[in-house]
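Justification of computing resources. Each target in the renewal requires a structure prediction run like the one illustrated here; the chain below, 226 residues long, is used simply to show the kind of job we budget for.
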Amino acid sequence: MDLEDEKGDLPGIVRDLTDREGELQSKIEEVQSSINEHITTREKSTLEAEALNERVESLKKQLYEVRNNKEYDAITKELSIAENGITKKLEDADEHDIKQKDLANTLDDLKQQQDTLKSELGERETELQSVSQVHEEEELHLKDQRHRIAQRISTDMLVIYDRIRRAKDGIAVVPIKRGACGGCYKTVPPQLNLLLRKNDGLHFCENCGRILIAEEIAAEVDKVAR
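Resulting structure tokens:
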């Protein structure tokens, strides 16, 4: 915990920047996907407009070959529908083109934000790595020690310890100091002091819920650790 404290806010800052960079990447992918859809739809509308235009040209030629008013009216009606279709398809193509360009601008902004964020993240990661390397060997040694000790503790006790540690800012076990809990400073009953000196099981502070140990035992442990 002391080594982690020396890193200050850097681990949290790196995690936050990494999360934000991931969120930006997701937004970039979503916007790019929308751009691709608009491009595909625009191209489809343009091709359909071209096909209708060819049909219009063909219908105009047929007007010169009609033999009666009925045929003329039918071709004229179809010609009107095709011309209206061209107008509609071109309008659709223009609309998707405008949306695609707007999204392209949004994409550029997002990518600029991402570049800035990546730059800051890189600097913070380098800074964190530099701080971590100073105590890297010691940290690995302590983690190895912790792992070896954890293997000697019953699973049930370890589960309780880890639950309390997470809830109490990393401090799950505290000694009695001057008749009070070393975590919350709440006075503990004298009889509990006697039980703690026997060191025969887990005893908890009734106020903060931390695991309590006798001050003498804590001193012995500290002496061994040194």
